[in-house]
Amino acid sequence: MLAHNAIHSHSAVLSKAGHIARNDMPGQMAPAFATQPHQVLFCSPNKEIYAQGERATALYQVEFGAVRIYRLLSDGRRQISAFHVAGEVFGFEADGHHRFFAEAICHSAIRVCRLPIDADLSRDILPSALLALVRAQEHLLVIGRQNATERVAAFLLDLAERQGDLPQIELAMSRTDIGDYLGLTIETVSRVFSKFRENGHIRLQGARTVVLLKPDALRAMCV
Amino acid sequence: MLAHNAIHSHSAVLSKAGHIARNDMPGQMAPAFATQPHQVLFCSPNKEIYAQGERATALYQVEFGAVRIYRLLSDGRRQISAFHVAGEVFGFEADGHHRFFAEAICHSAIRVCRLPIDADLSRDILPSALLALVRAQEHLLVIGRQNATERVAAFLLDLAERQGDLPQIELAMSRTDIGDYLGLTIETVSRVFSKFRENGHIRLQGARTVVLLKPDALRAMCV
DNA sequence: CGACGGCTTGACCTAAGTCAACGCGGGTGG
DNA sequence: CCACCCGCGTTGACTTAGGTCAAGCCGTCG
């Protein structure tokens, strides 16, 4: 609710999506970002931040909003490997060019930090990179070995935790995004949401607001 | 074949699995490893290198052999998030304790580099960490959005590439390991191997030696 | 008010899982 | 030295979770 309002008030002001502004406000950020020249990129929904194959010239930190990182197969199948929300750093690449796409999901602000990376910056960003690695590996367990119910439960709990463990979650992303993140179809995602609602585990206020009524029941599902 | 012989000749000599030896031979290694004090750990098949929950006190590099990194659900379901072969570095952790298990698959030698990591080492290991991240994210695409045939094809091609793109592959791991890596059952893995054999895409010399007869046909499968 | 896109629900289908039997090869003990 | 055993792999018959296809709903926006 709060986040939603914030996004909308910004979206009114920042209708020129993709506009780049010099930024001098000190927010919470990764240490090295504070001492680097940086810009903030304001993005409309579905605005591409970088594309697969592009040279990787920067790191990115979500100021507000949400971002999806994904990859496509040639027949259009899509796998979202990560969602990133406020405070998180993304855009790491192994060999200087992007292997994934990054897009804003909703109206978002992205802090941009130009490369190259020196030794100090390496030390500062290593924890972020390792966090991303652990998250990806844990997500492999969810996708590789858990069923649809367990995947959705894990997704909701992860999202709740990253939004400060409040019981009410605002979903920035569509059912399609959730399906492509969890390796499921939108129909299956929808059915699991409905099942959780019928079981009293969650309440749905519209399609994009989820209240976790029994978070422990959800936790019990994903072991 | 060559690798297999190498492993067996070592295994005869190094029957005391888990024995730790001071090592001063200069091999191919990550830069920082050369200047760090290090040891080499010789492992029998299924020897645990570290366990989930343990304090992370070192980084590891495969000298020879192969390692599996995995995680368990409480009911025993297992997801292998990565296999590591000669030259590869593993054991990165985000907050000082291991979230995964690491085990030798076959007779292996593991170079051990004690932490903590200074700034120089950070810069040196960042590329390895980023490579692991990219691999994990690409594996998400395979597991999340590809069918059994595509998964096995991708697995064989990845293994071939990491063994120097020779057409003949020695599988260090069992069908169970492959299934737990690809999010499939052993029966499904076995059926796909048989299908590839019947189609003339591969030749099987015993269960653990695979000859890629038509690598391009396999490549065409996983887009 | 109507159209459109995102979401839900139902009926049906299929890829992969489960269960079970059997084959094979390497290791051991009689 | 041979016979047995055991663990790994293969194959077949059947089941099922989740995908596919299709219809309809609901909220938003022009």
TrEMBL record, chains A, B:
Any one annotated GO CC term: cytosol
Keyword Transcription regulation, does the record have it?
A: yes
| SUPFAM superfamilies reported in the protein's UniProt record | cAMP-binding domain-like, Winged helix' DNA-binding domain
Query: In this protein, which residues make up the domain named HTH crp-type?
Result: 146-216
Task: List residues traversing the bilayer.
Answer: none
Q: Pfam families from the xrefs?
A: cNMP_binding (PF00027), HTH_Crp_2 (PF13545)
Could you cite one Gene Ontology molecular function of this protein? DNA-binding transcription factor activity
Q: Print the keywords alphabetically.
A: DNA-binding, Nitrogen fixation, Transcription, Transcription regulation
Q: Which residues form the Cyclic nucleotide-binding domain?
A: 42-91
Query: Which protein, by its recorded name, is this?
Result: Transcriptional regulator
